[in-house]
Amino acid sequence: MKTSKTYKFIVYIFLGLFSLYFLFPFIWVILTALKTETEVFAFPPKIFPDIPQFHNFVDAWTSQPFGVYFKNSVIVTVLTTIGQVASCSLIAYGFARFDFKYKNLLFILLLSTMMIPWDVTMIPLYMQFNIFGWINTLKPLIVPAFFGSAYFIFLLRQFLMNVPKDLEDAARIDGANEFQIFYKIFLPIMKAPLILIAVLNILVVWNDYLGPLIYLQDQSKYTMALGLAAFRGVHDMQILPIMSITLVMIIPPILVFALAQKYIVEGISGSIK
Amino acid sequence: MIKKTRPQKYNLVNKKVPYLFILPWMIGFVVFTLGPLVFSLIMSLFDWPVTSSPTFVGFGNYIKMFTDDPQFYKSISITFKFALVFVPLNLIIALVLALLITQSVKGIKIFRTIFYLPTVVSGVAISIIWGWIFNSEYGILNYLFSFIGIEGPKWLIDPKWAIITIVIASAWGVGTMMLIFYTDIKSIPRDIYEAAAIDGAGPLRQFFYITIPSITPTILFNVITSVIGALQQLTLVLLLTGGGPLKSTYFYGLFVYNNAFKHHKLGYASANAWFMFIVILLLTLLIFKSSSAWVFYENEVKKEGGKK
Amino acid sequence: MKGSTSRFKVILLFVLTAVLVLAGCSSSASKEEKKDKDGKETIRFATWDNEDTLNLQQKMVDDFNAQNDKIKVVLEGYGADYDTKIAAGMGAKDAPDVMYMWNYPLYKDALEPLDSYIENEGEEYKNNFYDALWNYNKTDDKMLGLPVGYTTHVVYYNKALFDEKGLEYPQAGWTWNDLQEAAKKLTDKSKKITGFAFSGQPDPYDFEMYLWSNGASFVDKDGNLDGNVNSAKSIEVFNMFQGMLKDGIAITTEGSGSTEMKSGNVAMFVNGAWSLGSLTEAGIDYGVVELPKFENGQNVSIVSSSGISMSKDSKHKEAAFEFMQYWTGEEANKARIEFELPVLKSLVESEQLTQDPVKSVFYSMLEKSDGYTPTSYIVEDWTTVADDLSLVFEQIFNPSTLMDPKKVLNEVVK
């Protein structure tokens, strides 16, 4: 498709306008992280700090054991991502490519688990994890991921539903069993959506705050998000550390995204749709 | 385990196989979800002040909710109004963004990252920033407006503007939806577009006749998940407005949250939650029913009268 | 059909095994945890403090652990979402043994009454705390917490703005008329400077102090709103605050007003001791002064007190109290002095805090504020009442409504 100059021009205008909206608050986070307290609250607003306060980052990082938090966050994020990708691909495949009894009922049941607000299931879940002896461990944050999440299963199912039926029929004629079909034919096709759910899971788990707040107790178990929240008190908050830790926390998921971009594009372009 | 000779005929899938695929979820559901779900349903029949033991009140919580709590109806109405704006708006923005980032222009990778960036930023920091941007007297936005001689609205103080503020701030995190659309659009084979281009179809025609029909499954996904998200919106109002001004952003999610953790009425909050659960479930079923008319799955193309 | 049901049984079996396995491997873990390596009793201690003071608290806990060979305290810091965490813990019968507390009426059923513990310590122990503070740490005549810190509310004023206009700094004993007059002189629309700022959605718990100062209150002894919150004396207070907005000498703020104060463009606002540190960090040269009086009234402040309580379900009550004593003792009060106003008379004396130009203000407000009971301690369902009141306050103070106090207050009592 040939793109004309005016077409490109319009594209850039839109890209620019949206970038402004998306970047402005973010840039303000960066600028704030480099200011002094006085500059942060000044009015008329001060856009640039007189002297960039890079030590804000060091101060914030050393004020709490963020090294430990970082390690915990990485453990939780990596393990849940493995768990979600492994379990959701199987489950979604089951829902998308087979007909079986009670399928629709079970699928509705699956979707309905997204609809109950956590406020009311949190306490019973807490009790349950307490019986398991999982409170104040990372287990409540990790183990459930190995049993799939409705959101990712649903998403993956939508992709899988959109693959032509003849694909596995041909393989069945060749005598492949169902798991071989799944493993050899569908997993490669699912590369892009699986990377997508990995990226999304990393994003969600990395920033998850309520789970760690409820299930963890002592500092050696805390995650980054919980450490970040500790700068927010009941009456006052420490703006500078909040901003600098927020920026540090952005780096891993954005790096993952930047890397994944390539595969999301590549993963599909060769395969059959 | 039951060992049987594998069926030789390819059209006969062993009946237990599908269940083996979804088994992880079934186990997870029973172990992690079912208990708390049933528990909260039972609790909705109790008066449970958290700090002491629950007492049975039958349908008292539901009756109170429907007959004796004006805030219940107000919160529902605010929430639905919000969803009515938020869901279509976000879908459209996400779709536009997804289309933009599939364009092959210079620097597109950077734009992709820029558009995705907001979803990565933690809610706490960003709600502080939005608070400063929208602060009526000493806010950044109104300060900028003052240069062009406009007296900006009192964003978070005027009830009419507060809900708009929430919409602006929440649309900021549209990146997830954008990325889902993007992944799907990227998987549409290039040759279809090329063929259409040869037939003389312009970008707009291509969009409506190729892109949209091909991504209807993910549109369905995004519609359903954003309806659920909008009806349960909590974090942003909790951090940014606390439900104010004048309860104009007192969304249902906040209503349930406050009943549970501010008023310590967990039984009542459970009843609230179950009511919304039913509403969302019905809505979802409705959307699913309607989807047979507008969602096209490739694996159903060949089946006759494929139901879904 | 028959085949599918038997398959379901297989799956059910799977599920059951999975549950058993999960439960099995976990129960072994849970038993290990409770016992510490050294056989010490482990006390969980939850605090709402944010990182600023958390490190200090951790150090104090470490000191206690070092001195003590029978008890080990584990500090848990939850910051702004303390209440959610504590409520979840209480609901699941897994609350921390010792926890910071201020909202006793809401949590009273989950807390251990401490009367007998306190009696054991003798009169002298009890008398060393300010009486006003004991009153804030009990409900229904049961002591539920030991005082740890407190703050009264005072007026913060920006010295630079006062100097600019050549105004005298306010002095204790001033009246609301004085404040309004000063605010009028300080307000400078062209520079976006405002004389006074107060929250557009004031917390009813805090706001009641203004009613007290004018001889009114939200409710009477029996908890009736009617005739109290809508009394002439009460309406007068609301009219005065609303009047300042109408005259343009005050603005309402979205939060407590500290953000606006930090911008350097607000001359005065009312807050607890929480702003002392952060205003300094923001580079504001400020002073504090007692709350103004109404004509013929006495200035009174609400006491925002914090204490520590023991969970009713704690399995280590004796040990917990031992730690609570340490935490409220003289040494601990002294260690916290930078962040928390001490609650022990002996320490206030030895540190000469009543001579301190800033801290003395909070103590003199405290002495004037003894004997007032906040409505939250009187009515059964304060959080609901507070919600209703809060909405009415907003209707009165929100610039887009500015409703007539008399009218809306008469409505809310119904």
TrEMBL record, chain A:
The chain crosses the membrane at residues 9-31, 74-93, 105-129, 141-160, 181-206, 239-260. CDD domains: TM_PBP2. GO terms for cellular component: plasma membrane. Keywords: Cell membrane, Membrane, Transmembrane, Transmembrane helix, Transport. The keyword Ribonucleoprotein does not apply. Residues 70-260 form the ABC transmembrane type-1 domain. It is found in: Cell membrane. Pfam families: BPD_transp_1. It comes from the Bacteria. One of its GO terms (biological process) is transmembrane transport. It is a multi-pass membrane protein. The keyword Lyase does not apply. Belongs to the binding-protein-dependent transport system permease family. This is L-arabinose transport system permease protein AraQ. It comes from Pseudoneobacillus rhizosphaerae.
From TrEMBL, chain B:
Coiled coil: none annotated. It is found in: Cell membrane. Residues 76-287 form the ABC transmembrane type-1 domain. This is Lactose transport system permease protein LacF. CDD domains: TM_PBP2. The gene is lacF_1. Its main location: membrane. The keyword Methyltransferase does not apply. Belongs to the binding-protein-dependent transport system permease family. GO terms for cellular component: plasma membrane. PROSITE patterns: ABC_TM1 (PS50928). It holds the Pfam family BPD_transp_1. The chain crosses the membrane at residues 21-46, 82-102, 114-134, 161-182, 219-246, 266-288. GO terms for biological process: transmembrane transport. Keywords: Cell membrane, Membrane, Transmembrane, Transmembrane helix, Transport.
From TrEMBL, chain C:
Residues 1-31 form the signal peptide. PROSITE patterns: PROKAR_LIPOPROTEIN. InterPro entries: Bact_solute-bd_prot1, SBP. The keyword Signal applies. CDD domains: PBP2_TMBP_like (cd13585). Keywords: Signal. PANTHER family: ARABINOSE-BINDING PROTEIN-RELATED (PTHR43649), DIACETYLCHITOBIOSE BINDING PROTEIN DASA (PTHR43649:SF12). This is Cyclodextrin-binding protein. The lineage of its organism: Bacteria, Bacillati, Bacillota, Bacilli, Bacillales. The gene is cycB_1.
